[in-house]
Amino acid sequence: MLTVTDLEAYDRFCDRVLYGDDNLRKFRTLLSRKRHKFDLSVPMESLLAT
To answer: What is d(CA 49, CA 30) in angstroms, rounded to the nearest whole number?
Structure first.
């Protein structure tokens, strides 16, 4: 059984095993491999103005 310890390890696994296999055309994952949100703050001014 293969165990990955964090998302970086999962990303390296995908690059090495899944993308590296010429017999595998595509695969689907339920984890996001890209970072979409960079800031955890919520702009409260726009909520208070309504």
So the answer is: 37
Distances (CA, A) of 18 to 6, 46, 47: 17, 43, 44
The first and second tokens of residue 43, run together, are: 């702009």
Q: Please enumerate in sequence order all residues whose Cβ is within 8 A of that of 44, keeping only pairs 6 or more positions apart, or say none.
A: none
Mean pLDDT, rounded, for 27-41? 74
| pTM more than 0.90 | no
45-to-3, 29, 37, 38, 41 alpha-carbon distances in Å: 44, 37, 20, 19, 12
Three-state DSSP at 10 gives helix
